[in-house]
Design brief:
The complex is a heterodimer. Chain A is mainly alpha-helical. Chain A folds into three domains: 2-220 and 230-383 and 431-445, no CATH class; 498-666, no CATH class; 670-744, no CATH class. Chain A is built from 31 helices and two strands. Chain B is an alpha/beta fold. Chain B has a single domain (2-123), classed as HUPs (Rossmann fold). Chain B is globular and about 45 Å long. The two termini of chain B are 27 Å apart. At the A-B interface, helix 12 of A face helix 3 of B.
Chain lengths: 745, 126
């Protein structure tokens, strides 16, 4: 084992591999700075570049980026008070206060060093997990692996932030989407509607970039102004570094919490950092300084958010169950190389495992070093408004998802899923279970049929491993029922999960007409899948039918919840200004007329039409929800002081102003306009080809949507054009050709 | 001098607030009410059915602690407030919790009792 570890380290001495690692680190640092991208965005954008590579350099590139994303996201949190990712918002609490006192360097050096240590400890944890889990993993056969896939989706759904029913719905939707394409057992086509393109299944990059990347862009593209001028980088590095050494126990504790949060599927960096912060507060004797610049409030969470990414890799590599979204994509990437994560990776590809470990550790050190050296330029980068970044990001993301299959259809899938992702995000569905379900759909089915053909009846359920997993699956359900009964008797007031339904900054459209419509669409989709799948052969039918029924039941439960919330809110706000309703109606009709907003709806046509339908029905049901008064502080990771949270807090006590009400909000209009732009861009690509389309789309988006200066627009477009022109010669990348150039050719 | 009352929307919590106001009258001190219920919303004095006039006649005030965006754990919130504002007495509602429940969910009351730097008065639901 030590041999393979050393061999992996020696292989990293190869300059080509080291170069990839460096490129990954730089890319990861830049993407950490861009709000909303985080590890998911970093892996999704870099993944397409790796398609032509060998596994080792590809892994070095991706791991390099993943390891350092949480190192640089601190910069904007500390200097601007605007976190680059949700997990950095924890660092902001104490880091920004410290920076405002003129101790920015102290805060940053604490953060960078903790990130570095978190990454290294995470890598050590990953290393130790290999020999520990090895005998366990090798004893697994198909029944255990089947149970693990089920557990992976179920835990992701249950442990994700927010409502459990919504998590389960998202997980089941992901499973359903993952089953589009050829069935693994009978080779018949499922849910393809006769399309050859869908027969291959949906591309992972397109799904991930759509659900996360484009959805994030759409919800943030309205930020036309950059952040305020950052706090000056003052103070001394030395004091921070010395101080950091005295907090070594916090570093260790934070990292361990992070690893554990990473191992659990669905518990990501955000929850992990809050856990670490809570731990730091709870164990501190003197709690007065927390929130006002306590170093312990920076050290613990910063160590945790880096080690989360390493922890995520443990179940991903050893069991094939992704612990989080970035690792779900990494899993997809390994599968395309024919490397099956799980037991076989330990026997056949141990060198790759250790390569990942070493890359992670080295990248953590390099990332912290780069951050120390380049704080000033990094800080100025955060001043760029998101709307300006958005146009380039859209162009790059679409190019990325084109690489996997080389089909324009993937790009349409991506935009459609972007809309779905935006709706899920805004109405408070966790999106991690969705992607984890999508990745695990086919393995789940394959393991099930393998199990079914190897064992008689339900004999496989009696295997000890299976029973343990079954217990892990069932016990939380029983516990929840028990809690629910106690809550009924009002004995357990403070364990009451009511606060999960509160509106928060991340999901402003919760408990609105939107979420009600989403519940209806979910029911429609699952019912439709049941109808369609009833035509399949018995073997191909089983799993889709199970998922369909499960989804239908969950969808109905969701609808019931929405109606109950709605009724309660209705009682609270019986008197509702009529004017709001009128304005909602006006704005919805305006939007229906706006170009491309409601038209970019294809196979998920049900989704789009239901929304436009529900908005026009808005006036009837747009009575406010009244949960605005039930503030954000209850849920764990929601106390992010941002413009959005102010907006969602505004309609307190029934005074719902138009535009912030639950009907058609300004943000929703903007998001759909952005999706309209994306659809227009796709049409341009289809006709004129990618390069020409970029030349039209980017300047138009910059001038009209982002309202950038003409000079900025010209330089931006020119640089992007040159980069895109040079890209195919540097990397194995294809640019989409348009209909016109094909005609000429 | 300030008394910190820990409010939850339960009989115990209301009883604690009531007792804190009584104590304030006796000890001639201000009252600060912290909402440590799960929702952590900002309380309004009106819903607590206490009579601020009774206290303010003696020049004393009743205030509500604004929700914290930093600290989510109820016990930590109470302890931080206690350290920050030099609280003289914490009044806390107690309720029965099984051993298993305490093992799994922990006990805020126990943490406050053990870690607080000032006397803690605990009351039951009536």
């Amino acid at each position: 084992m030590l041999d393979s570890a050393m061999a992996a380290l020696a292989s990293l001495a190869d300059p080509a591999l080291l170069l990839m690692l460096l490129v990954g680190v730089v890319a990861g640092l830049v993407m950490g700075l861009i709000p909303g991208l985080g590890g998911t965005g970093a892996v999704a954008i870099l993944l397409p570049i790796t398609f032509g590579m060998e596994p080792a350099p590809a892994l070095a590139l991706l791991i390099g980026a993943l390891a350092v994303v949480h190192t640089s996201d601190t910069v904007s949190a500390v200097l601007l008070g605007a976190p680059g990712s949700a997990s950095a918002s924890v660092t902001m609490l104490d880091g920004y206060s410290m920076a405002r006192k003129g101790q920015a360097k102290r805060a940053l050096s604490l953060a960078f060093l903790s990130s570095m240590a978190g990454g290294i400890i995470g890598a050590v944890g990953l290393t130790l997990a290999i020999p520990l889990a090895r005998p366990l993993v090798l004893s697994f056969a198909s029944p255990e692996l089947f149970m693990l896939t089920v557990l992976g989706v179920a835990l992701a759904a249950v442990l994700s932030r927010g409502n459990v029913v919504k998590g389960l719905v998202a997980g089941l939707m992901g499973l359903l989407l993952g089953m589009v394409g050829t069935s693994p057992t009978t080779a018949e086509e499922r849910f393809t509607f006769g399309s050859l393109f869908l027969g291959d299944g949906l591309s992972l990059v397109a799904v991930a970039l759509g659900i996360f990347g484009l959805a994030e862009i759409a919800s943030r593209a309205s930020q036309r102004r950059g952040e305020n001028a950052p706090v000056k980088v003052t103070g001394g590095w030395g004091s921070g570094i010395r101080e950091w050494l005295t907090h070594w126990s916090q570093v260790l504790r934070g990292s361990l919490i992070g690893i554990w949060a990473g191992v659990l599927p669905g518990v990501g960096a955000t929850a992990g950092t809050w856990l670490a912060y809570g731990q730091a507060v709870a164990t501190a004797k003197d709690k007065r300084q927390f929130g006002k610049g306590d170093p312990r409030g920076i050290v613990g969470p910063e160590s945790a958010n880096n080690s989360v990414e390493a922890g995520d890799l443990i179940p991903t590599l050893l069991f094939g169950i992704p612990g989080g979204v970035p690792s779900a994509m990494l899993l997809g990437m390994l599968l395309t190389y024919g490397i099956q994560p799980g037991p076989s990776i330990i026997t056949d590809h141990l060198d790759l495992m250790y390569l990942i470990v070493w890359s992670f550790a080295i990248a953590s050190v390099l990332g912290a070093l780069f951050c120390f050296l380049t704080v000033r330029p990094l800080a100025s980068l955060t001043k760029v408004p998101f709307a300006v970044l958005a146009s380039g990001l859209v162009a790059i993301m679409l190019l990325g998802s084109f690489q996997e299959g080389g089909q324009l259809g993937d790009l349409w899938v991506m935009v459609l899923l972007g809309i779905a992702g935006w709706v899920l995000k805004s109405t408070g569905f966790p999106r991690a279970p969705f992607l984890i379900g999508f990745v695990l759909a086919i393995p789940l089915e394959r393991y099930y049929f393998l199990t079914d053909s190897l064992y008689n009846g339900f004999e496989w359920m009696l295997r000890p491993g299976t029973m343990v997993f079954l217990a892990i699956l069932v016990l939380p359900i029983l516990w929840n029922i028990f809690k629910w009964i106690r809550a009924r008797r009002r004995l357990d007031r403070d364990d009451d999960p009511q606060h999960e339904n509160a509106v928060d900054a991340e999901s402003p459209l919760k408990n609105s007409t939107w979420s009600l419509a989403t519940a209806l669409v979910v029911i429609l989709i699952f019912a439709g899948s049941l109808v369609i799948s009833s035509g399949f052969s018995p073997e191909a039918r089983l799993v889709p039918q199970l998922v369909g029924w499960g989804g239908l039941i969950m969808g109905l439960a969701l609808l019931g919840q929405e109606i109950v919330i709605r009724r309660r809110a209705g009682q609270l706000q019986a008197a509702m200004p009529v004017q709001v309703a009128a304005e909602a109606a006006a704005s919805s009709s305006v939007v229906m007329g706006s170009p491309g907003s409601a038209h970019a709806v294809g196979s998920t046509g049900a989704t789009g039409s239901a929304y436009t339908g529900s908005t026009s029905a808005g006036p009837i049901t747009s009575a406010g929800t009244g949960t605005g008064s039930r503030r954000t502080a209850g849920a764990v990771a929601t106390a992010v002081p941002s413009a959005e949270s102010i907006a969602s807090d505004a309609p307190v006590n029934g005074q719902t102003s138009a535009g912030q009400g639950p009907g058609w909000t300004k943000e929703a209009g903007f998001a759909f306009k952005t999706f309209g732009w994306m659809a227009g861009f796709l049409i341009l690509i289809g006709i004129l080809g990618y390069l020409v389309a970029v030349m039209i789309f980017v300047p138009a988006f910059l001038l009209i949507v982002a309202r950038a200066k003409t000079k900025t627009t010209i330089i931006y477009t020119a640089v992007l054009y040159v980069v895109l022109l040079a890209l195919p010669t540097l990397l194995p990348i294809d640019l989409p050709q348009g209909w016109l150039s094909q005609l000429v050719g | 001098m300030t008394i910190l009352a820990c409010f939850t929307d339960t009989p115990e919590g209301r009883s604690a607030v009531r007792r804190a106001v009584e104590e304030a009258g006796r000890l001639d001190s201000d009252v600060l009410i912290a909402n440590i219920d799960t929702d952590r919303r900002e309380l309004s004095l009106a819903e607590l059915d206490i009579d601020p006039a009774a206290l303010s006649s003696g020049g004393r005030t009743v205030a509500v602690l604004p929700p914290s965006s930093v600290i989510h754990d109820a016990a930590d919130l109470v302890l931080q407030t206690e350290q920050e504002r030099k609280i003289a007495l914490i009044v806390l509602g107690l309720r029965r919790r099984s051993r298993v429940g305490k093992l799994i969910l922990g006990s805020h009351a126990q943490r406050i009792l053990l870690d607080a730097g000032c006397p803690v008065l605990t009351v039951k639901a009536n």
